[in-house]
Amino acid sequence: MLDDVQFRPLRADEATFLIDALYHAIYIPPGVTAPPKTIVRNPDLAVYIDGFGTHSGDEGILAVHETLPVGAAWSRYIRGYGFVDETIPELSISILPDYRGMGIGTRLLEALLDRLKGSAEQVSLSVNLSNPAYRLYERYGFKVVTVDGDSAIMLRDL
Ligand SMILES: CC(C)(COP(=O)(O)OP(=O)(O)OC[C@H]1O[C@@H](n2cnc3c(N)ncnc32)[C@H](O)[C@@H]1OP(=O)(O)O)[C@@H](O)C(=O)NCCC(=O)NCCS
Predict the structure, then answer these.
(1) Could you tell me the domains of the chain?
(2) How many helices (H) and strands (E) in the chain?
(3) How far apart are the first and last CA of the chain?
(4) Which long-range CB contacts under 8 A does 135-141 form with residues at least 24 apart?
(5) Fewest CB atoms less than 10 Å from the CB: which of 30, 69, 125, 137?
(6) Within the chain, what is the greatest distance between any pair of CA atoms?
(7) Is the pLDDT of residue 114 over 90?
(8) Which pLDDT score, from 0 to 100, does residue 27 have?
(9) What's this model's pTM, rounded to 2 decimal places?
(10) Residue pair 129/94 in contact by the 8 Å Cβ criterion
(11) For 114-134, what is the mean pLDDT?
(12) Which ligand 1 atom is nearest residue 126's CA?
């Protein structure tokens, strides 16, 4: 399966996929009802994707299975949930549910970190402490800098 997935930079004209990706990046604890898809229009979430590819510093990698986008990792200079300071972009990552647990997220994370090396010194993110993704981030060198309730901001040197 993983051998049939291509990883390549996300083009601005493909950024509509990030609407789906952002929705699927929302952590929903077991037993909790998923929010409606329109939640991604809320300003605190829309900032992650609106006009993606048109702002300086927008970087993204798309995972494509055959011709279907199935996941993305992207970063942007925003005051999002993972904001540390304006010199540090915030990373987001999301795989469509049917494609999780196959190694796609790991490859996307590696590719985006590699791409960011030339342009930023650090990258941040926000994660729920119960999200299995937390282990993935730790494995790739992200360190917790702030904990607020059940979510953490993590930071990694590039
Ligand atoms: C987290 C996520 C990006 C990882 O991508 P993936 O392709 O499923 O991951 P991989 O197969 O490369 O496995 C890497 C790690 O991802 C996590 N993971 C694997 N399957 C997962 C699943 N079905 N759901 C959530 N996390 C999963 C695990 O931590 C795994 O490491 P482990 O096997 O050591 O526990 C992906 O599962 C996803 O989109 N989850 C929902 C959205 C999300 O939580 N995004 C991050 C918000 S901070």
Answers:
(1) 2-157 (3.40.630.30)
(2) 4, 7
(3) 29
(4) 136/105, 136/106, 136/109, 140/109, 140/110, 140/113
(5) 30
(6) 42
(7) yes
(8) 87
(9) 0.96
(10) no
(11) 95
(12) 48
Q: What angle (nearest 5°) sits at the alpha carbon of residue 101, between those of residues 95 and 103?
A: 80
Q: How far is the CA of 84 from the centre of ligand 1 (A)?
A: 23
Instruction: Please give the Cα distance from 76 to 85 (Å, whole number).
Output: 12
CB distance 124 to ligand 1 below 6 Å: no
- The residue to mutate among 26, 95, 139, having the most atoms of ligand 1 within 8 angstroms of its beta carbon, is 95
Give the model's confidence band at 29: pLDDT under 50 very low, under 70 low, under 90 confident, else very high: confident
| Position in ligand 1 atom list of the atom nearest CA 95 | 39
Q: What residue has token string 């011709």?
A: 67
Q: How many CB atoms lie within 10 A of CB 118?
A: 7
Q: SS3 of 88, please?
A: coil
Nearest to 127 by CA among 87, 86, 95, 80: 80
